[in-house]
C-alpha cells in the first residue's frame, strides 16, 4: 500500500515537472516570437515555434494578456539569473555588464508592447513594473560594483540611472529604420569603461 502511494506521488511530481518544463518551452518560444514579430504575433506562430498545438498554449494561458504577463515575468527571471552567471563565467566584469545589458535590451523590446496589451489593467501593469525594478536593479548594481572593484569603470552612475538611460535609448526602436538603439547602447556601455580599457 505504501509503495503504491509512493509511486503515485512520484508520478504526480513527474507530471508537475513536465508541466513546468512545457510551460518554460512555451514562454521561451513566445518571447522569441514577440521580439521578432511584436506582442500581436499570431498564437499559431508561437505554437509552431514551440512545436505544440494552439490548444496547448490556450490551456496554459487562456488570454493573450496572460501569455504576455507570463513572458514578461519569464524574461525578468532570465535576466536576473543571468547576472551572477555572467560574472562567474566572464573574466571582465565590464564585459559581463555589457552582455547583461544586451539581454536587458532584448527584454525591453517585449516590454514596450506590454502597456498596449494591458491598457485596461493599469494596476496590473504598475505591479509588474515594480516587480521588474525590484528584481533587476540589484542585479545591475552587482555588475556595476564588480566592474568598479576591478578598476574597469568609474563609480559615476547608479544601476537605476543606467537602466533608465538604456530604456530611454530603446524607446524609439522599431519606429525609425534609421535609428539603431542597440548600437547606441553598446556605445554607452563602452563609454563607461576607463580610458585604458576602451583602448584595449
UniProtKB/TrEMBL annotation:
PROSITE patterns: HTH_TETR_2. Signal peptide: none annotated. Pfam families: TetR_C_43, TetR_N. Residues 42-61 bind DNA. Keywords: DNA-binding, Transcription, Transcription regulation. Transmembrane segments: none annotated. GO terms for molecular function: DNA-binding transcription factor activity; transcription cis-regulatory region binding. The keyword Chaperone does not apply. The keyword ATP-binding does not apply. Residues 20-79 form the HTH tetR-type domain. This is TetR/AcrR family transcriptional regulator. It comes from Arthrobacter crusticola.
